[in-house]
Amino acid sequence: MIDKKNTGSYYTPSYLASFISKRVLSHFESMTRISILEPSVGDGAFITELEKAKKIKINLTALDINEAELKTASEKWNENTASFIKTDFLEYAAHNLYSAIIGNPPYVKKNLLTEKQIELIREIHLNENLTDASVKNIWTTFLIKSITLLNKDGVLAFVLPSELLQVKFAEEIREYLKNQFQRIEIFTFNDLMFECKGQDTIILIGYKKHQQKGEFFANIEFKEELENNSYDLKNNNLLVDSNIKWTHHFLNSDELIFLENIKSELETIDFYTDSKPGIVTAANNFFIINNETEKKYNLSRYTKSIIQKGILVNGSVVFDEADYKELEQSKHPSRLLQLDDNDVIQEELEEYLAIGTELKIHERYKCKIRKNWYVIPNISTVPDALYFKRCHNYPKLLKNNSNALVTDSAYKVNMKADWDLNSFIFSFYNSLTLAFAETDGRYYGGGVLELTPNEFKKLPIPYVNINTNEFENFTIEFENKKNIEEILVKNDQKILKQVLNFSDKEILKIQNIRKKLVDKRLRKKA
């Protein structure tokens, strides 16, 4: 059985392989012979579809690191015009350039690669004037190297993770694509088309030369749209030239310009606050315990209150001691084992630490680099507020009225001088800031939205001052809301009108933009 974790093999459904093969071959209809490279042949899905669709002669070169897979794929090609080569594509030395390169490159993170592979990757990226920042996953290098092996009229067609469209490290790769191809086509999907580490997947097709130049996007709701060619490819050069991530290609030019203009008028979250990730334990299941474990090993003198993840907090904008007690009583792990290098290890504590040794917690990288593996560094004071970096329906920012710390599932937020915490939290909940959370963050399969520390800091926020009574009323309304839209509709009238002097028409516009973004992330049908 193939080890997906280490080989990054996520096989392509036949309808995707069929669509890609037909679209690529249609570009070469006037030719009698072309050469095609598949750099990671896997189970041969593309071989099967190329064999079915070909109307011209194809000189095929198919590579794979796995001999059994390669043999299976070779049996699907019926002519003697193919070479099936067992090799790592990173080491492959091509003797010629190719008309087309197609495939579904492996998805393997850098930490699972060998030192030799990492050096090869760096060399490939460096040769194309790309920095180390783009060296995060092997798929990026498959993409870069493949482009270098295309002839001057060549076409590349890959199934890729949606990371390409939205993560920071892929920014320079997107620029590289724009410089390499006259025409780029990107197909996104309303549903996970197949398993890939919980990632959304996309199709990227790049043409070295094309009469219709530009960047074109289509969103696919049903696979039949690919089978029937009933999709709508739309040009969106404005998106590609803006700072908004390519994931949001369904926003029109008017909406993109509207967002960009507003952004320049507002201060960002880091103007009002200092924020940084919560506590990294390196092993939450060991270092964060429940009351039962605390009592069993008599650890209460070593523990502090902690919130482990956002799903455990309430639907309010305030987290207080009563909420923490409720969390504690629900038997969720909520006590952080906080030891000091100078602590005397008593018998019961030693007994608990022995469990960690048995579980090999001490061998984990972040534990190994500590003076004592069980002493968690950088446990600071209780923060003013908590922002949970991942969310589903809407981003969560809470005032922290408890004594609880938080793990790195959240960012610790502390107000800068001269700014009011209640006003800041109230101001955060408006349609504009939450729309920018959608455009600036990234999302995973299943619709989970995530903002990195810097993305959170750079969210624009229209800040308004409110008094204590207003915040108390806001808290009550938030707790009793049916959905977040109830809060936003009311807050928008106060926040967006007061700070930005928005008309009702402009408020409705930003509300519709946010809805469009959220619906796409959550895969709601229009």
Quick summary:
By secondary structure, the protein is of the alpha/beta class.
Write the layout of secondary structure elements.
Blueprint: H1 4-7, H2 14-26, E1 33-38, H3 45-53, E2 57-64, H4 67-74, E3 82-86, E4 98-103, H5 115-127, H6 138-148, E5 150-161, H7 163-166, H8 171-180, E6 183-189, E7 201-207, E8 214-220, H9 223-227, E9 234-235, H10 237-241, H11 253-263, H12 269-272, E10 273-277, H13 284-287, E11 288-289, H14 291-296, E12 303-307, E13 318-320, H15 321-329, E14 335-337, H16 347-358, H17 365-368, E15 385-388, E16 390-391, E17 396-401, E18 405-406, E19 410-415, H18 421-428, H19 431-440, E20 442-443, E21 449-450, H20 453-457, H21 468-479, H22 484-500, H23 504-521
Parallel strand pairs: 1-2, 1-4, 2-3, 4-5, 6-8, 12-18, 13-17
Antiparallel strand pairs: 5-7, 6-7, 8-9, 10-19, 11-14, 12-14, 15-17, 15-19, 16-21, 20-21
